[in-house]
UniProtKB/TrEMBL annotation:
<keyword id="KW-0396">Initiation factor</keyword>
<feature type="domain" description="S1-like">
    <location>
        <begin position="7"/>
        <end position="81"/>
    </location>
</feature>
<keyword id="KW-0648">Protein biosynthesis</keyword>
<dbReference type="InterPro" id="IPR012340">
    <property type="entry name" value="NA-bd_OB-fold"/>
</dbReference>
<comment type="function">
    <text>Seems to be required for maximal rate of protein biosynthesis. Enhances ribosome dissociation into subunits and stabilizes the binding of the initiator Met-tRNA(I) to 40 S ribosomal subunits.</text>
</comment>
<comment type="similarity">
    <text>Belongs to the eIF-1A family.</text>
</comment>
<dbReference type="InterPro" id="IPR001253">
    <property type="entry name" value="TIF_eIF-1A"/>
</dbReference>
<dbReference type="InterPro" id="IPR006196">
    <property type="entry name" value="RNA-binding_domain_S1_IF1"/>
</dbReference>
<dbReference type="GO" id="GO:0003743">
    <property type="term" value="F:translation initiation factor activity"/>
</dbReference>
<dbReference type="InterPro" id="IPR018104">
    <property type="entry name" value="TIF_eIF-1A_CS"/>
</dbReference>
<dbReference type="Pfam" id="PF01176">
    <property type="entry name" value="eIF-1a"/>
</dbReference>
<dbReference type="GO" id="GO:0003723">
    <property type="term" value="F:RNA binding"/>
</dbReference>
<protein>
    <recommendedName>
        <fullName>Translation initiation factor 1A</fullName>
    </recommendedName>
</protein>
Length: 95
């Protein structure tokens, strides 16, 4: 993602199998509860590649990839910084 330091940034947008979500609760054991943009509450797993590098907190906006075989669960694919989440709200992608 390019960041020119001013104005609008090109943010990662969801693929066809991903959806925006907000972290609502930390469950421990690398799991969180998320409220997805499609209205579903899911238990999301923080994958190993993100566990030590990216800290996820309640209120963060993330991209999740719902499981095909179990719709109430998902994997976190991406976490947005606060400024990026604000930009998504301004552009109308999330509430």
């Amino acid at each position: 993602m390019s960041d020119d330091g001013e104005g609008r940034r090109d943010l990662r947008m969801p693929d066809e199998d991903e959806v925006f979500a907000e972290v609502t609760n930390m469950l421990g054991a690398n799991r969180v509860t998320v409220r997805c943009a499609d209205g579903t509450e899911r238990t999301a797993r923080i994958p190993g590649r993100m566990q030590k590098r990216i800290w996820i907190r309640e209120g963060d906006i993330v991209l999740v990839e719902p499981w095909d075989w179990q719709d109430e669960k998902a994997d976190i694919a991406w976490r947005y910084e606060k400024s990026e989440a604000d930009q998504l709200r301004e552009e109308g992608h999330i509430q």
